[in-house]
Amino acid sequence: MSLSTHPTKASTVRKHVKKLDRIAVNMDAAKLPHSAGGSWMGRRGGDGMKTWQLNDLLNNEGFTLVKYKPGFNTVIIDKEERMIAALIDKPADDGWPAVVEEAARCLRAVRVTGNANGAFHTEDASTRRGNFLQVPVGVSFGGGQKRPGNLYYHIRARRLIAQSILRNRAIQRIAGVQSSAFAFLNPKLFQRYTQVINSLFESQPNLVRNFRNSTFPAASFNCGPASISFDHHDFNNLSFGPCALTPLGNFDYTLGGHLILFELKLVLEFPPGTTVLLPSAALRHGNTAIQPGEDRMSIAQYGAGGLFRWSAYGFCSGKSLDSTAEGHAYRLSVDGGPGERWMEGLKLYSTPNSLVSDHAEVSG
């Protein structure tokens, strides 16, 4: 099934553009890290294993605090005016708090049930991103796979747990809001992203979408009890592609759970039910610690860079192309010169001033 890309109404775009809270940073996104060659993915390295405290960042590390402004979408713009990251406010819907609470209840139940029936082990709750139970689902490509495939849990209890998360209506609603936030913030990038992912699913009918209302091919449900990430890059993601993050749980967002953007020296208040979009392969990020007795979970959606490379290579691998001189030449032509793909990706990012016209261009 292909995801349709209905254009956002011009009146809606103009309304929200007027309510953008702009944070300018003295940094050119072109200089952010990305892999060599075709720049399909992020560059490895630079990750830490530290739990950061808000006061330490503000008082000792020179970070600036960005306060949450209800009713506004906060966009971070680089020296070229590109909106490279954003905190999208909660939907103006009286039922949204109930959606957020139900999603939190679902992930709490996953943690409790999974631990009780032995579906998860100690290593599942400890990764390079932090110490919390993580349940990834969706389509991936890498780690020795010969072609894109659905993440599969060989333990039946894990499969059932993952399926129960995907069937939860509140989880589905949040996934759709994350995808819609992407469509609003960067319509040209969203269009390109959706075209590639649709073509991937059409080429392999065995692939299964997580959600009918989201363009993202993969998701990770971080089930807590305190989903606080160490500083890291999600280097397997598409280098210039966005990751959508939505926190859940009961915690005081003014005291902890902040989003840390290390290259930008920013720390953002990040309340439950809001959504952040950022190129997580390129921007080193993490969270501040929450208070004792609180809990925090989160939903992340993203796409592996290998999926986009596979599609661009004509639905085959680089290794397969390199088996012939003609195929090798084709791969090099697709990859382009050093950093070329990275710069092409950045051209798809909107600026506050181009957002209305970019939406008009995408809608035809």
Features:
13 strands; 364 residues; 9-stranded mixed β-sheet; alpha+beta; 11 helices; 4-stranded mixed β-sheet; globular; Double-stranded beta-helix
Describe the structure.
- The two termini are 23 Å apart.
- The chain is built from eleven helices and 13 strands.
- It has one domain: Double-stranded beta-helix.
- The chain is an alpha+beta fold.
- The longest helix is centred in the first third of the chain and has 21 residues.
- Helix content is 33%, strand content 17%.
- The mean pLDDT is 90.
- Structural class designation: alpha+beta
Q: Compute the number of strand runs.
A: 13
Strand order of the largest sheet: 1-3-4-11-8-13-7-5-6
- Total number of helices: 11
Shape: globular
CATH class: Alpha Beta
What is the average per-residue confidence, as pLDDT, rounded to a whole number? 90
Taken together, the total number of domains comes to 1
Helical content (DSSP H or I, runs of 4+): 25-40%
Gap from first CA to last CA: 23 Å
Contiguous low-pLDDT stretches (5 residues minimum) are none
Rg (CA only): 20 Å
CATH architecture identity = 4-Layer Sandwich
Provide a quick synopsis of the model.
This protein has about 375 residues and is of the alpha+beta class.
